[in-house]
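Trying the structure run again after the queue cleared.
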Amino acid sequence: MAKIGANGTYITYIADDRIAILRPTGPLDLAAAAGIRAAVLKVLSGVPRAVLTDLSGIELDEDAYLTIFPAMACQANAWPGCPLILFDAPPAVQAALLALRVHDYLPVCETLADALAAADRPTHLGTRTRTFAPEQQAPAEARHLVEACCTRWGVAADAVAVACQICSELVGNAVRHVGTPVQLHLRCGPSYLHLAVCDYAPGVDGVHSRPRVPAGGLGIVAALALNWGVTPTVDGKVVWAAVWRHAGTWEPAAAEPGAAPLLLPR
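Done. C-alpha cells:
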C-alpha cells in the first residue's frame, strides 16, 4: 500500500494489479486535491483497467475541490482509456457530487461491489492497438489502420479525415524525434474517437503545447484535435488526442504536457 499527499491518499491494487483503489483521507482541500491528482497520475502510468476511489474517508472543505474527480476522470479516459469510479461517499459529499453533476463525467456508486461491477461494463464501441517500427512508412501504415477501424466503427467521414491527419502527425513525430518502436492505440466511444501514440523515450520536456504557428507536427494536432496532451508512462510517454466522432465542427484546445484534459461528458 502506497501513500501520497499530506493528508494521505492510500493506493491498493486488486484483480492481478489491474484495478487500483484510491482511499483519500482527511479534509478535501487544495493540498488534498493535489495529492489525489498525483495519486491518480501514478496509477495511470501503470495502465490499469480501472481506478476506483473510496470517498468514505474524506471531509468536505469546499464543494469546488470535488471537481478534481471529473478532471482526473477525463485524464484517465484520454489515457490509458480506463474509467475512474467513485464510491462510498458520505451523505454530504454525495449531495455535493449531485449538485455539481459529477455523475455526468464519471460513475458514482454506492458500494465497492457496485464500483467493481461498473468497472466491468464495456464503455467503448471498439479498440485497436498496433506497434510500428520507427521507419519511414510507419505514418502511412498507421493512417490506413485508422481509416479501416473508423469505417468499421461508423465514424463520420470528415472525422475520419481529421483522425488520419492527426495519426500521421503523431506517429511521424515519434519516428522522427524518438527513434523507438511506437504503439498506436485507437479507441472509439459513443461521442469521441481517441488516438494515442506511445514511445519508449522518457521525458516530456521536448513536447511543447500548441505553437503560435501550427505549421506541422504537433502544431497540426493542436489545430485539429478537440483536445490533446502528453502523459508520462513507466517506460516513456504517450501523446494522445481526441476527435469528435460525428460530423460537425469544434473549437480545438491546446493542452499543456501532463495536464488534465478538458471535461468531456461520456
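The longest strand covers residues 236-244. Worth checking whether this holds up in the mutant runs.
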